[in-house]
Design goal:
alpha/beta, Rossmann fold, TIM Barrel, 2 domains, 8-stranded mixed β-barrel, 4-stranded parallel beta sheet, 18 helices, 13 strands, globular, binds ligand C2E, binds magnesium ion
Length: 412
């Protein structure tokens, strides 16, 4: 073991985060990385480490199961249990500054205490508060500051009419312009939701997207629609329809040019109130879409009751629809069901010509995905709109090159 460099074990299922950690920490520590909990256990069993960074993206249970194991096999280690990229970066900053050797998720579990006390017994510095409180505060502070600085930008991904190949709208997707990095929502939305900052962030996205849509409207795209994701807290917040009405009035965007995307889970907490809010929005002329459809647990009867205009078919179904008959059958069933309930279907995550052709054959209404256009800045989206259909891959209506005979499914 290197005398001067403490040894660190990084356990994470996410390649990108693992690579970042590796790069950041390798100057200070000797790093060993693992890709999964199973690998980690194998490494732990045969070695010992000074710092263990774990449970960054692993399911909670795995992390919890590992704690007693860590206590047994790595009693000399300083265990670091953190979650999410923001927290990791704050943790690294703090460790570098020598603030502490030990960070953990705020699990107040006896097992955690065992690990901690063993670390103390073996002469490790342990600074309190140790259960992640100050770390989280730091991450929250950075989020708040970013909101104040207007560091969030909205990108747009084209939504395409699958039958005519024309761009009919765009989904607004928030990004955090953090120094030189453009952070994706997965890195900060969970913390924004946990702290309630999502209400302010969501409102600023809605305002920016409506203002942008009005500019496109003024440039000759009268029917162009912008779709905005709304989190459960926004939906449940007092008078969300009032906020939307104010934003539409201020920006001058006609309500029919705005689509609000909600998820099934965001309606689950208080379905009655959620449905009332959706009714109020629709009454104003705003469109409603159910995002990531098929991934929640709501019943089909529920779909009938929801005042919605469209269903966004989740990318996970689209992914395998041209490869596995069961997935193809599900896609077909969802499209048919939605159409029978007079809802439009927007397929997400279209990444290939084959998927597009298959969806077209099933008369899916609209689509979105890397094959049709990646999310880009408003300027990039503007250029794309100027060119309109030129960049939308002229896919012949008859083209279909998979091993599945699409018409068999379509006809079944
Ligand atoms: P979503 O609403 O389902 O958005 C679609 C996500 O899929 C976007 O990721 C988009 O970049 C990605 N995507 C689009 N086409 C493809 C494709 O062909 N292949 C693959 N693999 N991915 C594709 P992004 O931008 O990282 O957003 C992730 C999620 O973050 C969104 O999922 C949405 O739930 C949430 N989100 C984004 N912006 C906002 C916002 O302003 N407010 C709230 N509350 N949530 C937001
Ligand atoms: Mg969405
Ligand atoms: Mg989605």
């Amino acid at each position: 073991m290197n005398e001067t460099k403490p040894r660190v074990l990084i356990i994470d299922d996410d390649d990108e985060i693992r690579d970042i950690l590796n790069e950041l920490l390798s100057a200070v520590y000797d790093c060993t990385t693992c890709s999964s909990a199973a690998d980690a256990l194998a490494v732990l069993a045969s070695d010992s480490f000074d710092v263990i960074l774990s449970d960054i993206n692993m399911p909670e249970m795995t992390g919890l199961e590992m704690i007693p194991y860590l206590a047994n096999v790595a009693p000399r280690s300083v265990v670091v249990m953190i979650s999410g990229q923001l927290m990791i970066e704050s943790a690294i900053d703090a460790m570098r500054a020598g603030a502490f050797d030990y960070i953990t998720k705020p699990f107040d579990l006896p097992q955690v205490k065992t690990v901690v006390s063993r670390a103390v017994d073996h002469g490790k510095r342990l600074h309190s508060p140790m259960l992640g409180g100050n770390l989280k505060d730091k991450a929250v502070e950075r989020l708040e500051q970013a909101l104040k600085d207007g560091a969030f930008v909205v990108h747009y991904q084209p939504q395409v009419d699958i039958q005519s190949n024309s761009v009919v709208g765009a989904e607004a997707l928030v990004r955090w312009n953090d120094e030189c990095r453009l952070r994706l929502p997965g890195e900060f939305i969970p913390l924004a939701e946990e702290t309630g900052l999502i209400v302010e962030l969501g409102e600023s996205v809605l305002r920016a997207a409506c203002a942008q849509a009005r500019r496109w409207h003024d440039s000759g795209l009268a029917g162009f629609r912008v779709a905005v994701n709304v989190s459960p807290q926004q939906l449940q917040h007092d008078d969300f329809p009032g906020t939307v009405a104010e934003i539409l009035e201020t920006t001058g965007l006609p309500p029919r040019n705005l689509e609000i995307e909600v998820t099934e889970t965001s309606l689950m907490q208080d379905p009655e109130a959620g449905i009332r809010t959706l009714h109020a929005l629709r009454k104003m002329g705003v469109k409603i879409a159910i995002d990531d459809f098929g991934t929640g647990y709501s019943s089909l009867g529920y779909l009938k009751r929801l005042p919605i205009d469209s269903v966004k078919l989740d990318a996970s179904f689209v992914k395998d629809a041209t490869r596995h008959p069961d997935d193809a059958a599900l896609v077909m069933a969802i499209i048919t069901l939605a159409h029978n309930l007079r809802k439009k279907v927007i397929a997400e995550g279209i990444e290939s010509e084959d998927q597009l052709a298959f969806l077209r054959l099933l008369r899916c209404d609209e689509g979105q995905g890397y094959f049709l256009g990646r999310p880009g800045s408003s300027d990039e989206m503007g250029l794309r709109l100027e060119r309109r259909q030129d960049d939308l891959g002229h896919v012949p209506q008859t083209m279909f090159r998979t091993s599945l005979a699409a018409h068999d499914y379509a006809a079944a």
